[in-house]
Amino acid sequence: MDSATEKTAYKILLASGLAAREEFEKVWKQAESSQSSFCEILARSGLVNEEAVLEAFSKATGTPRVHLKAMEIDKGIFLKVPVKFASYYKFFPFKIQDGKLWIAVSGLRDIRTLDEIRLGLGFEIQTALAPEPDIQEMLKRYYGVGADTVDRIL
C-alpha cells in the first residue's frame, strides 16, 4: 500500500470514531517507524476489529461489502485469473459483469495496484471489501493446492 492510501485509511478511521485519536496516532507512529502498514499494525493491535474497519472503509468510499462464503462463484473465472496473480495482489475474483472483473480485497487499494491488476488481466476492475481470512479461505477453496503452494512460496 502506498503512503497516500495509508494516509487515507488513517483519516477514514480517525473520523470513524472507532477508537480515540491518541490510539490511532500511536498506531500511525508505529507504522511510520516499521516495515508494516498502518492497517497491519492496527489489526495486530486488536484496537479495532476487521469488520468495523471494513464497514468504515465501505461507508467512506462507497465500496460495497461482500460475503464471499455465501456467494455462488462461477468457476470459469479462475481460468482468467491465475492463482499466482490473485495471491500476489491479495484479492479474490468473484464475478465478471459487464466486462468488469469484481475482486474482493481486505482494505483500500491504491490506483497503481489496481492499474497493475487491470493491465495484467485485461479487465476493468471493480473492488468490494471482504475480511482477509475469508479471502484466503476462498483462494484455497477455489484454487485448491495451487493456492497453498503459492502461499508458501510468497
Concise structural overview:
The protein has 9 helices and 3 strands, in the order ααααααββαβαα. It is mainly alpha-helical and about 150 residues long.
Write the layout of secondary structure elements.
Layout: H1 3-16, H2 21-32, H3 38-45, H4 50-61, H5 77-80, H6 83-89, E1 92-97, E2 100-105, H7 111-121, E3 124-129, H8 132-143, H9 145-153
Parallel strand pairs: 2-3
Antiparallel strand pairs: 1-2
Helix pairs in contact: 1-4, 2-3, 6-9, 8-9
What do you see in this structure?
By secondary structure, the protein is mainly alpha-helical. It is 58% helix and 12% strand. The chain has helices at residues 3-16, 21-32, 38-45, 50-61, 77-80, 83-89, 111-121, 132-143, 145-153, and strands at residues 92-97, 100-105, 124-129. The protein has a 3-stranded mixed β-sheet with strand order 1-2-3. The model has no long low-confidence stretch (mean pLDDT 89).
Structural class: mainly alpha
Written as H for each helix and E for each strand, in order along the chain, the element string is: HHHHHHEEHEHH
Oligomer: single chain
In whole angstroms, the N-to-C terminal distance is: 17 Å
Mean pLDDT: 89
| Lateral strand order in the biggest sheet | 1-2-3
Number of strands: 3
How much strand?
5-15%
Instruction: Supply Rg.
Output: 16 Å
Uncertain runs are: none
- The rough form would be described as elongated
Tell me the major beta sheet.
3 strands, mixed
Descriptors:
mainly alpha, 154 residues, 3 strands
